[in-house]
């Protein structure tokens, strides 16, 4: 899997972090950093990638336009993730493309949803299914 490295917030011409008026304004910056790929399933999409909120935007309004809360997602992964709330208690119940090496966890093949690697132990497979 390609590394999902979003790095620090983009900087404007005055040297300040870009202030996104709408979260969708972050899309070109994310594509510039991450390429036109879904951060979760790695599908290449020349159009239709959405700005994905790691924390659902409805639950944490302060994070709606926060760079550190953004990834890119295809429509399928975006709807599958839905509005799951991520907190300190369940953070490690998932493998995250910007934190974990998901190449170790999933097998990515063309035209197929990522498959869970059979080399994982039972607990790791449960996290991968999440
Ligand atoms: Zn996807």
UniProtKB/TrEMBL annotation:
Molecular-function GO term, any one: endonuclease activity
Domain HNH, first and last residues per copy: 38-84
Name of protein: Uncharacterized protein (TIGR02646 family)
Organism of derivation: Methylobacter tundripaludum
């Amino acid at each position: 899997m390609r590394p999902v490295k979003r790095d620090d917030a983009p900087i404007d011409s005055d040297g300040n972090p870009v202030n996104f008026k709408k979260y969708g304004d972050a899309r070109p910056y994310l594509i510039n950093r991450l390429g036109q790929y879904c951060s979760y399933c790695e599908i290449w999409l020349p159009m239709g990638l959405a700005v994905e909120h790691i924390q659902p935007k409805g639950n944490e309004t302060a994070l709606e336009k926060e760079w550190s809360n953004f990834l890119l997602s295809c429509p399928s992964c975006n709807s599958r993730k839905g509005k799951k709330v991520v907190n300190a208690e369940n953070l490690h119940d998932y493998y995250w493309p910007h934190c974990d090496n998901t190449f170790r966890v999933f097998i990515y093949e063309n035209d197929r949803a990522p498959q869970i690697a059979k080399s994982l132990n039972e607990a790791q497979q449960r996290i991968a299914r999440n």
